Records
---
Amino acid sequence: MKKASFIAVLWILFCHSSPAQNRLVDSMLAWIQAHPKVDSQYILTLHRISYRGIDEDLQRSFSYYEKVSYYSDSLNFVYGKALAQINLGILFSFSGNYDASNQAYFKAMAYADTCQNLRLQAVSLNNIGDNFKQLKDFGKCREYATEAILINRKLNSSRGVAINFELIAACNLEDHQLDSAKLHLDKGFASARLSDDSSLFALYYLDYGIWWAAKMQMDSASACLNRSIAIARRVGDLENEFKAYLASVTYLPSLSNDAKLGMLHKAMAIARDPHNLSRISEAAHQLYIAYDKKGMKDSSQYWFTEYHNAVDSLVSLNNRRGVAIKETEWMVKRKEIENSHLKELATLQEHDLRIKNGLLLAVLLCMLLGIIIAVVVYRSARNKKKSAESELRQNIAETQMQALRSQMNPHFIFNSLNSIDAFIQSNDKYNATVYLNKFAKLIRNVLDGSKQNLVSFSKDMETLKLYIELEMQRSEQKFKANIQVDDDLMNSDYKVPPLIVQPFVENAIIHGLRNKDGNDGLLTMQVRKNGQRIVYVISDNGVGRAAAAGMNTNKDKSYGLDISYDRIRLFNKESEASVHIEDLQEKGRASGTRVTVELNIV
């Protein structure tokens, strides 16, 4: 479920290989029971148990993280404190909270610096880089991975260097920088040879296969991907074996349909044991397409159903994980509060002791000290109350934003599924498949966005363009779209709430352009930066609001518009949402609608 490079780092550095995950955890639990004395080895074992359980039970994994943190603090075991923060970073990363994850890794680096442990610094740097890779911030990913390389070279760790180079190469492949990707693959592969780690060879041959395919050298691509599969099977590396099968189907067009089906069924076997919903959805989707091309309708329908069931289950799982990670974040905050209270209590006890000792010297001095302490405690309590009230107001605003976003996604997904159903009902298999492929990418973006309050501007525009393409196909090209976005915005690191303007685009298409006669509809969207705001201008040459209102019943009113008004208002922290709607006219007749939305830059 996690990325190959990320898994490789954690597997190699913390949990030395074993094919029986559950048996290993059971053996560590048995060791804990047989060795109740809390020492460094006891803490390290708790750490490994916490890591091993992340993918299965976040709450249980967090409980072991708490033990590692508590015992490390009790013994002032700085190495254990660093491990605890790395565990916490992994927990947050598995649930998509990359900002909190990076904060934990930075704390781990501070502890690692205190105990002069370069290895843990290198691990933290690589994991921070991997978080930025998931956020599509390839520049920062390369930056942190490069820092990790420098440290691993000081340690003469060829294995660590190979992992770091592979992360940079994977960024470059995804960023379409093929020459740079090849350079880093070659450097990293040389280090992998020195480490003689077979799991790294499987990972590198997989990357080489994708690189050769991008260069249209299919024989070389096929040889590398087959090599990756063979190595992964030999060492029991299910993650890379699964990815190599899907890469072969995706990047090797010369494969026969039967060969593709064979590889996809092998990939599905890996996905089902253990039950990995993300892999199952990917494999089922490819099987559906392959059987459909072969004309086997029953099999195609079966895998289509499997794919949708997996996607539904994955959405449910992500929702449960989202709840779990919110609880985890609260538990972290609670622990920090409890530690703060303990320190305050210790301070007060120390003051009491001093007061008692002072009583032996002079009663007047004790009274004076008592007055000073009372004033300090009063002021501290008053300041804490103000701080708590401010934090509560902030949390309420964030909770409202999350609630509005959670309403948005089901509304958006429901409309898109209706479009797919329309193609299926009309037996238009080609357009259904094309639409489904675009929808699959769109739903992945929506799921990624549902994990975060904010997403990058460029990512949100990519999702919005996908939606517009789907609506154009759904309406049989009844309208065209002209989208103009400032390059400065696309290349920036600005953040916006996910799908914040999508309901206005949807409203223009459904109520304006679809009700227009003929096929000359035009949707225009201009996005520019104006001072400290991002300005969206969405125009259509449809029938206008008055005519659209007469054509639609009350139940057709866009539910997403009301939500978007509230989201914009909350995001901009203003009493009224910065949305302006004007009716366009030409020669005294309605000629469309223009909507202007302004968002604060963050």
---
Amino acid sequence: MLVGQMLQGTPILVLREGTERERGKGATSNNIQAARAIADTVRTTLGPRGMDKMLVDGMGDITITNDGVTILKEIDVEHPAAKMLVEVAKTQDQQCGDGTTTAVVLAGELLKRAESLLDQNVHPTVITRGYQLGVAEAKRLLESEIGIPVKADDQSVLMDCATTAMGSKGVFGSREHLASIAVKAVQRIAETRGGKTVCDVDQIKIEKRHGGTISDTELIEGIILDKERGHPRMPSEVKDARIALLNSALEVKKTEIESKINIKNPSQIQSFLDEEDKTFRRMAESVKASGANVVVSQKGIDDVVLHYLAKEGIYAVKQVKESDLQKLARATGGKIVTGIKELTSADLGRAAKVDQRKVGEDDMTFVTGCQNPRSVSILIRGGTEHVTQEVERSLQDALKVVGSVLEDGTVAPGGGATEIELAVRLRKWAASVGGREQLAVEAFAQSLEAVPWALAENGGYDSINVLIELRRAHDGPSASKNVGINLTDGSVTDMGKLHVIEPIRVKRQALSSAAEVASMVLRIDDVIASKKSSPTPPPGGGHDH
């Protein structure tokens, strides 16, 4: 590429040949278009009336969902600015579990409004400064005036948050049932650390099997292992289970160094085999001596050991995932032991029952009836694999949402009510900002209205009429901050009465992420893309002659 002027007729090459470069307004405009294209992709999935997307990957596997982050993860995005919007959705998903579509739609709208300001010759840094001021004020309003405090034991609010989170997913019919499972599961694993409530949702194990219906989904007060017992002669059910948790193998180890055993006569072979047999028997006896009647091992268990364990009536499961072993320790109160020799009765976990059940086509081990489980499982059922996958995604959202309500203790009205309230307040506040930043704050306020606009549009209602109604409800003489859009009939209603409630964390994170990514895209004025490396030729070389 030729850069700079010609020096006595010689071109100066600064960048390598084949490098593409976009500068100034062209670069900004291109980035904004790409990011908006991503936002428009997920916009139609927002809200309870949102549509689903069918995604087919390179292998031909199908995913049917309207979960914003799932859609964006599955799409193979090429444009660098569009990739930044995908990151917004991922962050929102990690932090809150819900609100991924909202965050992306907001970011797209902020960029759209910024474009018209750029056309009026407002400098990008002025716009980003205005957006930052807008976010700071919006967060302050959320915390101090819009947020509604809730108590941790307020079952109905937790249920409302869970049903709201699942309202936009494909499990609409069974959401009451799933919401109650989510609330119970999170309450089970919630713990207090340093005076704060902490909900580690990863302690909830989710297993899905197709067959049955969504309403067959159940919460297990314990752990499900997708493994069967190690030997057919073992009992299929153990009551009052005392569980040994091992992360070492019950096998004869091979030595680290290379070793040979020289056997000179046949009787030595027999004594070698007898010794091996004794070792295996000692392993089974050590387990029995500790008082355990169930063994769960992360590594392998030799067939001979399984035979001896079966003789003793001990139920054994081998090759269990490390994460499952840790969850079992939390659920049963047991300790994970490395060597079988160290195993004592104090290390054993307790459960009322360990049994093998057939779920769909697979045999699974259920550890149930734990006294005070700090880790629980949810078994998802559904007609087809696609259904169980969508139920899992919905439950993940609901679990995280309930967890964030328990941790923060604050909620906000859903259905576009919070966004409209913020938009109305920020518009009034913009005048006090002054300068050109005021235009950006107004643009920020206007962008917030994209959420109720998209909700109304997806519900099949007239967005303009709905927006006018909402503004009047939030800014008129009888203003109420809780009025949002009722998607059953398109009217504007108090969201508290409709039980549409969301955690404040979802709103806060969506605002921050959207404004940050919009500011980042706006500040780029030069895109330098190096030449793509050509794909390596296939091995084998040579040409056909």
---
Amino acid sequence: MRLLGGRGRGEQQLWEEGLRLLREGKPETLEEAVERHPYLAEYLEKLDRKPRYYPKLDLAAGVEEPNVLYPLGMGIFVHVESGSEMGRYNLIEPPAPSREILDAVETEIARMVASMKRIEIPEDPEGRERVLVNLFNRIKGRVKIPPGEEEYALYHFLREKIRHGFLDGFLEDPWLEDISVPGAGNVFVYHKLFGSLISNVVVSKEEIDKLLKSIAERYGKVLSYTHPILDIHLPDGSRFNIVFGEDISLKGSNFTIRKFSKEPISVAHLCRFGTISEELAAYMWILLDIGVSCFFCGETASGKTTSLNAFLGLVRSDMKIVSIEETPEVNIFHKNWVREVTRMHTGSNVTMFDLLKAALRQRPDYIIVGEIRGEEGRIAFQAIETGHPVISTMHAGNLGQLFQRLTSDPINVPKSHIDGLNLTIFQARMERGTKLVRRVTSVMEIIGYDAEEGQLNYLPVFLYDADADHLRFLGSSYLMETKVLPFRGWGRERLPELYEEMRRRAEIIRCLRERYPSYLDVWRTVIAVERFGVDPVYERAVEGEPPWIVEG
């Protein structure tokens, strides 16, 4: 007998038939969506004001008063609308069959498995899904499922058994940054376009506890009243933080999921959003080529890690990178990338401090530290002083706060060592009209620490103009003159040539922003500049052609 986890012709056909709803393309028009999904039509009929349908959202598009509907695939739709206190996020899923039907499906599948001589359950999620879909298709004639609702039953059966229950629809939405449940009640989300929203999904304490225990067991974790706090990394890289039990969470167990994008946001995307300017991207592109140490700073949710990921896409492709994190959020395309995470819950503890010390022996071109909060900061500055560029994030709203945090407990970097850090990029989340946006507010080059005056000398290179909503280059760079020119063996007479190169790189980024903003396209362009130089890539960009396609 063929294993149900295999790819035999019969099993493959059953799998494809069963997953038509789950794998079909997204409807291009509202008419098509309504025709294919009657439950969507029922939802829309109850609305006083019909939403505008977007088969594909655009992060750069501005929507002042949201009333939009968009598909996620698998028969799931999202309707975002404005509200009195906060906007609403309405999740529209295939209707759930009765509990009796789902229990009957589970019973019949259990009987079939018990009657089989041999069955293998694959480890990968797709393999497990294939097995359950094949089994479902074999037994669905034995269960009284209303005509036309077999796909709904399959969707909810898979959601319960191998996925993440009522969280599935939220996890499918690439536009969400955070999903949170503060206790029994509504699920809340943070949307990349529309900010904080309250969803139409309401859950009880019992539902939350049942789901959290199931997920913890699935990922091999212990969750109980004696072990109530847990971090789980989902397969897509999202971070799932759980606080379990009413004794420490008075509204009942709570959790937050920090979602992880499948493809990183690029510098071209950041330019589209208005977070940075093309000039800043070009400036960083030049500096990252020579090895500089840089901290991305700002308050919580200001976009530090997103910017760190985006700018790492400008680092030369042949460089060796070691990343050290507590939660894996760095996502880059470099082949020579050593990715390390701390271990705090099983076996002997391995801290950021331990991993950073080990990284110094690995001869990296760049060390990436997810976030500096404690004693690992001292090791990071030792790494900088021994010639290892370090890029990291820190919670600090301005240079004064950063200096104070670095030189105070628990980090305690000597003040005279701070000038090893080359530059700092400060970000903030702010309101523009009715939208919350992220903006780089300043870029500061560190010149040195003046022991006599007891202060840090620095040069502002970029400053945010709030009236124009634009990040302005102030016209000169200490690092370009003292780091880049000597690295290239150029005299000061060639400084205008360097600034002209920065202008040309900015034009390349502008072309990518307008036509080819994906991380992959930016990455290809960086490689093309490595191989052929700036000028031929610039000429392609000016013509509006894919800048990475250059004939050698």
---
Amino acid sequence: MLRWGLSSMDFTRLSRTPPDAMRRGTSSLKLRILGGIFIVFLFSMGMVLYVSWTYQRDRLVEQTSRHALQTGLLIEAGLRTSMLLNDREATMETIRKMLRLKGFSLINVMNNRGEVVMSSDPAQVGRTLDKDREESCRVCHRDSRASPARTAVVTDNREGEFLRTVTVIANEPACYGCHAAEEKMVGILVIDSSLAELNRLISAMSRRIVLSGIAGFLLGFFLLHLIITRFLTRPLDRLLEGFTQIAKGRFDHWVDVRCGGEIEDMATCFNVMSRTIGRYVVEVSRKKAEVETHYTIAEALGQTIERKILKEVVVDLLCRVLDAATVTLVLLQESKEGLFEVVHTRKSDQRHYHFIYDLASGGEPQGDLKREEIEKLVHHGYTQPVFSRRGGRLLVPIQLKGMQMGLACVTKAGGAVFTMAERKIVPVLAHHITISFANARLYSMAVTDGLTSLYTKRYFNLKIDEYVDHFHEGETGFCVMILDLDHFKEVNDTHGHPVGDRVLVRIADLVRENIRHGDIPCRYGGEEFVVLLKGESQADAVRIAERIRRSVAEHSFEIGSIPPFHRTISIGLACFPRHADTAVDIVAAADAALYRAKARGRNRVEVFAGWAEQVETTLLRR
């Protein structure tokens, strides 16, 4: 048993999957990949913006703080000089000059008590800032017992964010004239710097990052789309199309993928696999066809064991299995040397034509066989099937262990020839046909009379029961014809029993020659014969009976040195179901008609006229 990668259920499901659905599958894969990249891009962009905003802002604020501290120290140095001169106006002028520097929004100078003594904003002068209560001071002065941890802090007010830088104005010896020497500082310089410009700078930088990121993403998205289409989705589409074609049974479909890498390797493996599967499928189909042909042969030949029916079955079988235009079958008649039964059929009309061919006549037989081919059969010239040179004609000998039984001629139409599959099946076909005819021969020996080669009385009883059953199943009726040779005892008494036997053989031949194909002639006993006639037509039965009667009456028996002599025959007829409705009664009716023919002068045909005739016949017997 072959085991492939896909089960039959998978192939069935794949064959029912529309190609558009498969293409949508690869398109969905592409969208999922691009969508995932887009999400990664958004996440990365968010991280970049977050890092840029926080890190760069902190760095810029730190740099601004250092700059503000340095500036505060410069301002403190400038103010110290003005304050040592006790020149308030010069100090305020210094503050105003410092204020005009870009970014400074407020400059306050406080004393040790937190009171604003000088300010760039006159409204601030005199204001006292409590470091424990003022919100902007508590950012650094969280613990009143400890010094603040920072000298710069970012805070905001109604005007926005700003950076507050605190610079201590230390008490130095030059200041001892106005301040006590034990004081550590003489004041505090507070400078507020607006962060609006810084924020605008960061915002502009963020916008540039976003725009450049989007432009880069769109370019990368486009390039990635081309790459994915070229190296992923398009090859996968072709692979899916290949699976679709395989599901439809097109194993010769070639998947052309030239993208390099693993997918191209997959396509190559797929092509190899499809070819391999195709070969296996062809092989399995061929094996299946062979098995089906064998089954057809066995089924056809198993229909019957009777030679008469088997002849027609064989020619039909040869015509069907080998797709022949005509078939001719020739069978040897064992008891008559030189005589052959010929059955011929044509595919165009499918009828069977039966002939008797006498080799001694010198003429050509009817059908497709030639005289020299039949002569070669008689002289055991065939040992195996023979094909013509062009391959359109076949001779099939029917022989078993050197015993020749017949020859079949099979002919193709026009210029057609036998295929390799048909050539392979011919030996098997010939073997089965030979066995069937051999069995039919044995069966014929069992059911036929050894002297006349007609069927026996036992066979007649079996067939008449079958005919009655077939009638009850809806088929037509039949007729029974009983024949008795008139004054046959005189032949035996005058010429002896061997001559009488030869007379019976010739009478059997005359009966057989004058009935139809399909009628069943039997030897009923002694010089009595019985024939089962197809169909219930009384007129047809009478015509056949009269034909037999005339043929016997006109025949001149020439046996050895005995002078020629003539004999006559009496015939009784009865039709089923007109004259009787059982097998026993129809035979009795035909027998009654026979005795009526005998009583009315012999050499005549009588039809059963009713059961009143039975009484008259009984009286005549007495």
